[in-house]
Recover the amino acids of this structure.
């Protein structure tokens, strides 16, 4: 299958990406909709989840991505692999995080991963970054107690901002003593992670847990 070519970065604030969210009937997507849920925000081509889902059949995985061609490609790959615990959704997550999470049965969200999000270096563009206070609040509202959030970036400024946004919320606590987590807690690395490690460049990781404030 030919690899779909899409823009590397798209502006989530543009009108094109503010169209209404179309949610599927989750009972028609997952073999067992009541399994624990792992949400991967900004999943790109979905390679991480396509490898995670077969390893953990008793977890439902949902990848959210703003570039629709990548979502279509990833779901086609999911279907070829016949994975009944995985779905990819075209969604502008900062607009629709709450209705998305509310569409699932309660108390299922156990893990959230945000890995190598678009950095948006220009100060005037930083409001386009995915980790905003409203996203953190929604995750805090729906993540189960002791549920985890894993963040990583190869851009220190972006990692620091993500960490600060989560740690400002008293519902989240860092799960390691050092500033950054040295290793990925998951058995699968993203494409960007592999490329960064191959260049011997640093990766800034943080693992957080939801606690009762």
């Amino acid at each position: 299958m030919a690899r779909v070519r899409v823009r590397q970065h798209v502006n989530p604030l543009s009108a094109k990406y503010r169209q209404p969210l179309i949610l599927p009937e989750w009972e028609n997507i997952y073999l067992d909709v009541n399994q624990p849920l792992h949400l991967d925000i900004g999943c790109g081509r979905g390679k991480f989840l396509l490898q995670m889902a077969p390893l953990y059949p008793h977890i439902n995985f949902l990848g959210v991505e703003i570039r629709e061609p990548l979502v279509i490609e990833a779901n086609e790959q999911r279907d070829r692999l016949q994975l009944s615990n995985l779905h990819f959704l075209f969604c502008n997550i900062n607009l629709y995080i709450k209705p998305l999470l509310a569409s699932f049965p309660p108390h299922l969200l156990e893990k959230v991963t945000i890995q190598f999000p678009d950095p948006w270096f220009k100060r005037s563009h930083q409001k386009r970054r995915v980790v905003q206070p409203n996203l953190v609040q929604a995750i805090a509202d729906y993540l189960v107690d002791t549920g985890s959030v894993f963040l990583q970036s190869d851009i220190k400024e972006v990692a620091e901002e993500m960490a600060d946004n989560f740690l400002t919320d008293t519902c989240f606590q860092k799960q390691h003593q050092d500033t950054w987590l040295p290793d990925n807690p998951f058995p699968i690395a993203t494409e960007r992670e592999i490329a960064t490690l191959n260049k011997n460049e640093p990766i800034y990781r943080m693992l957080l847990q939801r606690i009762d404030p």
Observations:
- The chain has one domain: 28-210.
- Residues 28-210 form a domain with the Rossmann fold fold (CATH 3.40.50.150).
- The CA atoms of residues 79 and 168 lie 40 Å apart.
- The chain has a mean pLDDT of 89.
